[in-house]
Amino acid sequence: MPWNRRHLIAIEELSRAEIGQIHATAAAFKKILQRSMKKVPALRGKTIVNLFFEPSTRTRIAFEMAAKRLSADVISFDAAASSTTKGETLRDTAQNIQALNADLIVLRHSAAGSPLYLSRLLDIPVISAGDGAHEHPTQALLDTFTMQEHLGALKGRKVVILGDVLFSRVARSNIWALTKLEADVTLVGPSTLVPHWFTGLGVKVSHDLKSALADAEVVMLLRIQHERQASSHFPSLGEYTSMFGLNKTRASWLNPKAIIMHPGPINRGVEIDSDLADSARSVILEQVHNGIAVRMAALYLCSGGQPEAVAATA
Q1: Cβ atoms 166, 233 nearer than 8 A
Q2: What are the sequence ranges of the domains in the chain?
Q3: What b/e string do you get for 162-189 counting C-beta neighbours within 10 Å, with b at 16 or more?
Q4: DSSP assignment of 248-299, as one string?
Q5: CATH class of this structure's domain 11-135+291-313
Q6: Burial of 201 (0-12, 13-18, 19+ CB in 10 A)
Q7: Runs of H (alpha helix) within 100-197
C-alpha cells in the first residue's frame, strides 16, 4: 500500500502495516549504505532543518547523516544562539523557518505534544525526534528494526524493558511498536518508576527482576531520567543499581541467545555494567548504526517518497 503520512509524530498512531513499510524502506536504505557510494539523490534540492531544543548526540547526528545520504541540505538549529533566548516562541521560530523555504522540520522539544502542535501549524512535514516524556518514534522504529534483524518476526518474542519507564519517551514508543508487532512485553523496575497502570497498554508489569528476565530474548535498559523527575523516585543510585542494575550474574538469567539493548546515553555502572555494554550480546552500537537507515526512511517517506521506489534501487 502507498505511504500517505506527511508527518511522523508518534508510534501510537501508526498501523502495523505502516511500521512494516518504514522497516522495509530502512532495510533497502541499509543495503545502499553498504555500497562504496552511500549517497542517493532522493531528496536533492530539499532543505531539512533539525530543530533541537534539548541536548542530543546520536539522534541529531543520525538525522544529519540520514539527510546528507539522501542528498538533502541540512541546517542544525542551535537553540542557545537563536532568538528563543530573546523570548521568541516555538510557533514563531518554526513559521520563520518555513518562510525561509525549509522543506521539512525534525523537532526535539521538552514539551510533550510540541511536534503535533507544529504539524497543525505548518504546511511542511514535521518529524518528532522526541517530545518530553511522550514519545520518541524513530528510536522505537530502529529498536524494533534491530530486534527483527536478530530474531525475525517479533510475534510472541519475550522483550523486557528495564529501568525508568515512567519518564521515558523511548519506553512509550517501544511499548506501542512492540505491542503492534505482537511481542510479549514485560516492564521491570521499582514500583515508583514502573507503576501498575502500564498494564492498560497491553504489557506486563513486574518488580521481580529474576522472574522477569527468565528466558527473555531481548532486554532493553533505560537510564534514569533525572532531568524529568521533580523528586527522587528511589533512595539512591547505589540502591537502584543493587536491585535493578544488569550485571553478569543477572544476565545469566536471560535466554542464552538474548540480546542486550540500550537507547543511550549509557550510565555505565548504574543500569548496566561496562563489561555487558561492550559484550558480544550487546547490540547497542548496531542500534546506533541502524538509526541512520531508519531515519533515512522517515525523511524519505514523509517527503513524499514511496517504499517500492527504494526497494527497486537497493
Answers
A1: yes
A2: 11-135+291-313, 137-287
A3: bbbbbbbbbbbbbbbbbbbbebbbbbbb
A4: HHHHTTS-TT-EEE--S---BTTTB-HHHHTSTTB-HHHHHHHHHHHHHHHH
A5: alpha beta
A6: middle
A7: 114-121, 137-151, 169-180
Distances (CA, A) of 125 to 122, 131, 243: 8, 16, 44
Name 96's Cβ contacts closer than 8 Å, sequence gap at least 6.
none
Q: Could you list the pLDDT tens digit for every one of the 314 residues in the chain? A: 789 999 999 999 999 999 999 999 999 999 999 999 999 999 999 999 999 999 899 999 999 999 999 999 999 988 877 888 889 999 999 999 999 999 999 999 999 999 999 999 999 999 999 999 999 999 999 999 999 999 999 999 999 999 999 999 999 999 999 999 999 999 999 999 999 999 999 999 999 999 999 999 999 999 986 454 444 556 578 888 999 999 999 999 999 999 999 999 999 999 999 999 999 999 999 999 999 999 999 999 999 998 888 876 66
Fold match flag (11-135+291-313 vs 137-287): yes
137-287 belongs to which CATH class?
alpha beta
**CB-CB contact of 13 with 7 (8 Å):** no
Taking a C-beta distance cutoff of 8 angstroms, is the pair 112, 12 a contact?
no
* pTM assigned to the model: 0.94
> Residue 288 CB: number of other CB atoms within 10 A?
18
